[in-house]
Write a structure and sequence with these properties.
One of its GO terms (biological process) is guanine catabolic process. This protein is an alpha/beta fold. It has 16 helices and 17 strands. The protein folds into two domains: 121 residues, Urease, subunit C, domain 1, CATH 2.30.40.10; 295 residues, Metal-dependent hydrolases (TIM Barrel), CATH 3.20.20.140. α3 packs parallel to α4, α12 crosses α13 and α12 crosses α16. The protein binds guanine (GUN) and zinc ion.
Length: 427
């Protein structure tokens, strides 16, 4: 057993439905076998457990580990390709890099950078878009297992319109996906995600094969892209005989509680209704939407329809791993939407980056906040003395204001330490 002493901030009660930020100052969490077994004032818990070791985290703020619900492993070296809209960016920038994943040595280097990048940003769980090559997905799961991250990922599949070396067939997609799931699903903290790239690059036969794979792997997730860019949407409508984008997945039974679809910047009300009824989650990726000029995310319409929303970094169209930056950008977008925007506070941003993400990927019984019974997946934000964040937080009136300053000024450099299941990852 270990006591962790410090200031803990989390969002067990949803701020979008009236819940308040939870702040525990000079508090302690008692962690046993990776699970939080008690929480309360430090003095009380110290007295109750006089012989147990204490890890002193005072002088910073402890948050739950972030949950990134949309991030591309093969694109880490493609961050920063500015100035292109989605389809041009894919063809000229992202997909040539994805093709390099055919080389296992290259993929190994990228996987190593990727898992370190996530952990350094305070991300402890992620739904990861894998590679189009089975061996590269093996390499990712191997790297994630070494670091100890909670990764859900899988083989990315497509059978039309991309460069030829990235294409597969429905039969091959089925066989390779099941073989990967056999090796990795439920092994350690790894889980499998069925991952067609987007319906633009997938025939109905391939999407049907995806559904079969999802049915054959209990507890696996489904992830893809939807309604990101106007030109993309027009092409999808044409290829699928006038169908809306969400229906291209829904008609194969792929819009449900196990589904996480990235973007949805341009949905119709009919599509929002379908997403809400299915229980699917939208991974909102605000820096990606801004960098590619995809548009301003209609969060208020999602909430009005009861569609679940969480946050994704969408590296490499997104501009980095930090969900602090994604939270701030989500806030900016809602401000820019004026009357149509949804006003966001620091509590909303933290909820989107933690609890909402855990709910999206079905890990909410285990992680997402720091309640008794949850696993101790956490990060210590402790900026260096004299840094802009340290100076700012020193003048914050209360914990909520400090959290707003953390989202505004914080970077991975301010993430001092990260734990998963109570084990220290990164210092
Ligand atoms: N749609 C299909 N593939 C991708 C991708 O890699 N990034 C983004 N942002 N959108 C996509
Ligand atoms: Zn993406």
């Amino acid at each position: 057993m270990t006591l962790f002493r410090g200031t803990f901030i989390d969002t067990p009660e949803n701020p979008f439905t009236g819940g308040a930020l939870r702040v525990a100052t000079d508090a302690a969490l008692v962690v046993k076998d990776g699970v939080i077994v008690a929480r309360g004032p430090y003095a009380e818990l110290r007295a109750a457990h006089p012989a147990e070791p204490t890890v002193d985290l005072t002088g910073g703020v402890v948050l739950p580990g972030f949950v990134d619900t949309h991030v591309h492993f093969p694109q880490i070296r493609a961050v920063g390709g500015l100035g292109m809209p989605l389809l041009e960016w894919l063809d000229r920038y992202a997909l040539p890099e994805e093709a390099r994943m055919a080389d296992v040595d290259y993929a190994t280097g990228v996987a190593d950078e990727f898992v370190r990048g996530l952990a350094a940003a305070g991300t402890t769980s992620a739904l990861v878009f894998g590679a189009h090559y089975s061996d590269a997905v093996d390499v990712l799961f191997t790297a994630a297992s070494r670091v100890g991250l909670r990764i859900t990922s899988g083989l990315v599949v497509s059978d039309r319109l991309l460069r030829p070396e990235l294409l597969t067939s429905p039969a091959r997609a089925y066989t390779e996906s099941l073989a990967l799931a056999e090796r990795w699903h439920g092994v350690g903290r790894n889980r499998y995600a069925v991952t067609p790239r987007f319906s633009l690059s997938c025939t109905d036969d391939l999407l049907a094969a995806c559904r079969t794979v999802l049915d054959e792997i209990p507890g696996s997730l489904f992830t893809s892209h939807v309604n990101e860019n106007e030109a993309e949407i027009a092409n999808v409508t044409e290829l699928f005989g006038g169908s809306d984008y969400v229906s291209t997945y829904d008609r194969h039974g792929l819009v449900n509680r196990r589904s996480v679809l990235a973007h949805n910047v341009h949905p119709t009300d009919v599509e929002l209704k379908m997403l809400a009824e299915g229980g699917a989650t939208i991974a909102h990726c605000p820096t990606s939407n801004a960098a590619l000029g995809s548009g301003l995310f209609p969060l208020a319409r999602h909430l009005q329809h009861g569609v679940r929303v969480a946050l994704g970094s969408d590296v490499g169209a997104g501009t980095g791993f930090s969900l602090l930056k994604e939270g701030l950008q989500a806030y900016f977008v809602q401000r820019l939407l004026g009357e149509q925007g949804c006003p966001l506070t620091a509590a909303h941003l933290l909820h989107l980056a933690t609890t909402a993400g855990a709910e999206a990927i079905g890990l909410d019984a285990e992680v997402g906040d720091l309640s008794v019974g949850k696993r101790f997946d956490a990060q210590l934000l402790r900026p260096a003395d004299g840094s802009p964040l340290a100076v700012s937080v020193a003048h914050a009136e209360d914990a909520e204001e400090a959290l707003a300053r953390i989202f505004t000024l914080g970077t991975p450099a301010d993430v001092h330490a990260v734990w998963i299941d109570g084990h220290l990852l990164h210092h």
